Amino acid sequence: MTSPAGLSELTVGELLAALGERTPVPASGAATALTGALAAALAELAARFADDEEAVVRAKALGAHLARLADEDAEAYAAFSADGSEANRAWIIEVPREIAAHADEVAELAERVRAQLRSAVVGDAEAAAELARAAAVVGRRLAELNA
């Protein structure tokens, strides 16, 4: 289960242990959002090397929002597990859709930044794009499964 401060406050080891527990949360939605946040951090790194301040700012904002969505996904699923109301069902569909939309934006941003680079950091931009695309695909699939 998450700490009171949220998933982003856990150590990597604590997060991995929490994900591996036989509990309903955190699970794939939170992991997907955090994958998107990691992708955003890599896009931010690449943007810094590209001297693209606008992309740095946007990547930071996307990463922070995706980290919050990891916690929101866990909250939504816990609420749905406790009360399978239509409102809670809508919440467990909307959060992964939002994760996917933000991850799509991270992928686009990473691709834009990648085109500006001529250094070894190209690999970081490419990794950001791939991780973000994977997060978007999984987010959309989770929304489908939760519908």
Protein described:
By secondary structure, this protein is mostly helical. The protein has a single domain (28-146), classed as Four Helix Bundle (Hemerythrin (Met), subunit A) (Up-down Bundle). Helices cover 78% and strands 0% of the residues. The protein has 5 helices and no strands. It has helices at residues 12-20, 28-49, 53-82, 86-114, 122-146. Helix 2 packs antiparallel against helix 3, helix 2 runs parallel beside helix 4 (86-114) and helix 3 runs antiparallel to helix 4 (86-114). The radius of gyration is 16 Å and the shape is elongated. 44% of the residues are buried. The mean pLDDT is 94.
CATH architecture: Up-down Bundle
Amino-to-carboxy terminus distance = 24 Å
Structural class of the secondary elements? mainly alpha
The figure for the number of domains is 1
Mean pLDDT: 94
Strand tally, please? 0
> What is the helix fraction of residues, given as a range?
over 70%
- How much is the radius of gyration in Å? 16 Å
Question: How many helical stretches?
Answer: 5
Largest sheet: none
